Amino acid sequence: MCIDRATAHALMTEWTASESLRGHMLAVEAAVAAYAEREGEDVDLWSATALLHDYDYERYPHLGEGGHPFVGVAHLRSLGAPDLMCEAILGHADHTGVPRTSRLAKVLYACDEVTGLITAAVLVRPEKSIEGLELKSLKKKFKDKAFARGVSRDDVRRGAEELGVDLWDHVQFVLDAMKARAEALGLDGSSARGR
User: Fold this and answer.
1) Could you tell me which of 185, 195, 91 has the C-alpha nearest to residue 133?
2) Mean pLDDT of the chain
3) What global pTM score does this model have?
4) Do 130 and 191 form a contact (C-beta atoms < 8 A)?
C-alpha cells in the first residue's frame, strides 16, 4: 500500500481526535512540504511523513517501546510505508536514538518545534491571524522562556544546525510556509471573527 498524502491525512484523522494536535501536524506538513518543493524532493512523500510524525501520540503518549513513535511506525511498516518515512518519524524524537541521516529526517526535526512557537505566537494575538506576524516578534518570544514553555529552544537551534541553515532564515522560511496555508491551519483569524 502506498502511503500518499491523502492516505496519511485519513490515517492521521482516524488516530487523532485532538484538533490542536491535528493542527500541529498540518503546520509541520506546511513547512516540510515547502522545503520539499524548494529542494526538488518528493512533496507527496514528505507531506505524508510530516502528517504522520505524531499521529500515534494521542493513543500512545508514553515514550519508549510500546509508545510514541514506535507504535505508529510499526503500524506504518505493516502498511508498507517506505523506510525513509519510518526512519524520519523515528528520528524526530530524540528518545528513540535513531539518527537523522536523511534530508527528510533533518527537515522534519527542524520544522517540528518551530511550528509550535509560531502557532503559539499567533494564538496570543488579538486577531488570531498569522498575517502580519513578523520575525522580530518571534525573536522576542523565542528569548522569553516563559512563552510557549513546551517548545524546546535547544531543539529549534539543533534542528537549524543539522539542516545547515541560519536559525532565523529557517524560522522565516517556516513562517512563510505557514502563512501560505493560513486558512487550512486555522491561523487566518477566522476563529476570532467567528465569536
Assistant:
1) 185
2) 93
3) 0.94
4) no
> Residue 44 is placed in which grid cell?
507527496
- Report all structural domains of the chain as residue ranges with CATH numbers, in order of start: 5-185 (1.10.3210)
Contacts 24+ apart (CB under 8 A), 155-162: 155/94, 155/109, 155/112, 155/113, 156/110, 156/113, 156/114, 156/117, 158/109, 159/106, 159/109, 159/110, 159/111, 159/112, 159/113, 159/114, 160/110, 162/100, 162/106, 162/109, 162/110
Contacts of 69 (CB under 8 A, 6+ apart): 53, 54, 56, 57, 89, 90, 92, 93, 96
Neighbour tally for 3: CB within 10 Å: 20
pLDDT at 190: 79
d(CA 84, CA 128): 36
